[in-house]
Design a protein that fits this description.
- This protein is an alpha/beta fold.
- The protein has one domain: Alpha-Beta Barrel (TIM Barrel).
- Helix content is about 45%, strand content about 15%.
- Strands 1-2-3-4-5-6-7-8 form an 8-stranded parallel β-barrel, surrounded by 6 helices.
- Helix 10 packs across helix 11.
- Its main location: cytoplasm.
Length: about 290
């Protein structure tokens, strides 16, 4: 899966103020990523507010994204959930044309055991038309995919090829790197952890802040892959505050506020999320002048 090395971005889904999908805004976001040098895009991950979209809307976004990218860079589709049978259904009706892999979040809310997580992914992988990327984000799901479960899945199920790790645990990252098969990829799921995780041997990042700053995130990942950590640290430091602002009032409200100020798309989100406060907008405006490398 060479397509998954370097910097990927979890694309937002732009909305108009009435809640409908802003496809013109999505096109601008996509072009912003490609112009900025992103290595691949993830369509309808958590940042894409996929939980608030209907099945018809999901299909429309995936098809639109495929058509606009037109093979210029690889695409990954986000298909996951806490109802295993529903995830299986989504995979069966998904059109994989134009996509190289599926990113599937660990079941949330149910808080399954490690065996439950293993059996969920085993069932999902059995019907997936594309290689599968695990996604461990305990802060959102309420449960952790242990390193042992990750490695078990990697070793026993051939089309599970990577994990997006957002546990925040360097002990966990280290155990996965130590025990995983050589061809199984560890991918950072947290922007601030990109540099140290890539220093451990991670393949790259699936970024949120990259929606707004693709050139910076792509260069950071490139420098890390080249083991040029001195230069990578400079970008890492510049992005710390703006990344913090992305998550201060929830994701993707923060990064949408940034994209709005950059003139790329609006800041609307779907309930139960709400738009960034005026105070956060002010902080974003102050910080934007300090971030770019130019």
């Amino acid at each position: 899966m060479n397509e998954l090395y370097g910097a990927g971005v979890a694309l937002i889904t732009p909305f108009y103020s009435d809640g409908s999908i802003d496809f013109e805004g999505l096109e601008r976001v996509i072009e912003h990523q490609i112009k900025g040098g992103m290595d691949y895009l993830v369509s309808l991950g958590t940042t894409g507010e996929v939980a608030t979209l209907t099945e018809a809307e999901r299909k429309a976004v995936w098809k639109f994204t495929t058509n606009k990218v037109a093979g210029r860079i690889p695409l990954v589709a986000g298909i996951g959930g806490n109802n295993t049978l529903e995830v299986i259904h989504q995979l069966k009706v998904f059109d994989p044309e134009g996509y190289c892999a599926v990113l599937s979040v660990s079941p949330y809310y149910n808080k399954p055991t490690q065996e439950g997580i293993y059996q969920h992914y085993k069932a999902v992988a059995a019907v997936s038309p594309l290689p599968l990327i695990l996604y461990n984000v305990p802060g959102r799901t309420g449960s952790n995919v242990s390193p042992e479960t990750t490695v078990r899945l990697a070793k026993e199920i051939g089309n599970i090829v990577a994990t997006k790790e957002a546990s925040g645990s360097f002990e966990q990252f280290s155990k996965i790197m130590r025990d995983k098969p050589d061809n199984f990829l560890l991918i950072s799921g947290d922007d601030p952890a990109t540099l140290p995780m890539m220093a451990l041997g991670a393949a790259g990042i699936i970024s949120v802040v990259g929606n707004a700053f693709p050139a910076e995130v792509a260069l950071l990942a490139k420098l890390c892959r080249e083991s040029n950590y001195l230069e990578a640290r400079k970008i890492h430091s510049r992005l710390i505050r703006i990344t913090e602002l992305c998550f201060t009032e929830g994701n993707p409200a923060g990064v949408k506020a940034i994209l709005h100020q950059l003139g790329i798309c609006g800041s609307a989100v779907r309930l139960p999320l709400v738009e960034a406060s005026s105070q956060l907008e002010k902080f974003v405006q102050e910080e934007l002048e300090l971030v770019t490398l130019a």
